[in-house]
Write a structure and sequence with these properties.
single chain; 282 residues; alpha/beta; Rossmann fold; GMP Synthetase, Chain A, domain 3; three-stranded mixed sheet; 25% strand; globular
Length: 282
């Protein structure tokens, strides 16, 4: 496929942590684009992806989740940068929990001239009448041009939502931007995404601060037509963290390795040989 350098609209997803932004992105692309976890701030950088859909090209930026206890100032800067780059701001909230981060979201986007859309996610978790009652109670709903109701994980309303966005394609302000992406690809490298899949596994099988205190280095050793050989190093801050990730009789690291290997295999549609080493950072 050719690189896309022409004008195309940019959509930015913002919202609280665990609102389902990454799950929605994966549903739109019909494959894993972003890792998913029930822990806060699984995504810690802006992830950009170009979608070719019904003859049109549209760029989506998935931002880190908003979280009051976040201590990384770069994350909020990343979100602000993505908003400034966007032609359409899409705010996604989880209607099944009480904290929608209304004030911080309003502060971020209220004065922005771009069109704004509110996506009410996880409607499968709440009775329909309660969903509408909760939406009526939202203080910031008046700043949005439209509201959509979806369940990203159940794939309810996702196609309708995205089709509506595409139908209004010509009404979006399309600004020439200095981006160069391959269709249906992301801005992160293959090695980084494989590292992210293993990080997702660490989120799944460990608790508390462990996933946030790890770094993963990936090296693709051999890339055959039907077989991928990968070596990874999980770097941790302490010997105690190393013991937790390895687990008793190496059961934890086997779980992490198996989950990551299966996810990588699904992504590349190849047999995967994955070798993981856990080391303490020097």
């Amino acid at each position: 496929m050719n690189n896309i350098t022409d004008k195309f609209p940019v959509l930015t997803f913002i919202g609280p942590t665990n609102a389902g932004k990454s799950t929605l992105l994966n549903k739109i692309f019909k494959k894993k684009i972003s890792i998913v976890s029930n822990k806060v701030q699984t995504t810690n950088f802006n992830l950009s992806a170009l979608k070719h859909y019904n003859g049109k090209d549209i760029k989506i930026i998935d931002t880190p989740g908003l979280y009051y206890k976040n201590k990384n100032p770069n994350i909020l800067d990343n979100i602000k940068e993505a908003i400034d780059l966007s032609d359409l701001i899409i705010v996604i909230i989880d209607i099944s929990i009480p904290n929608y981060y209304e004030e911080i979201i309003k502060k971020l986007i209220f004065k922005k001239k771009q069109k704004k859309i509110l996506v009410i996610n996880k409607i499968d978790k709440v009775d329909k009448t309660i969903v509408y009652k909760k939406v009526l109670e939202l203080k910031f709903k008046s700043i949005f041009d439209d509201i959509f109701y979806i369940s990203a994980i159940k794939d309810i309303g996702v196609s309708y939502f995205f089709d509506a966005i595409i139908k209004n394609f010509n009404n979006l302000k399309k600004i020439k931007k200095n981006f160069q992406f391959v269709q249906n690809k992301t801005n992160i490298s293959k090695d980084l995404f494989i590292s992210e899949l293993t990080r997702e596994a660490i989120f799944k099988y460990t608790n508390k601060e462990i996933p946030y205190k790890t770094k993963i280095k990936t090296n693709i050793v051999k890339n055959f037509s039907n077989h991928l050989i990968i070596k990874q190093t999980i770097l941790v801050n302490s010997e105690n963290h190393k013991k937790i990730i390895i687990g008793k009789e190496a059961k934890k690291i086997k779980q992490i390795s198996m989950y990551s290997k299966n996810q990588i295999s699904k992504l590349f549609k190849k047999k995967i040989s994955l070798f993981i080493n856990v080391e303490q950072s020097k």
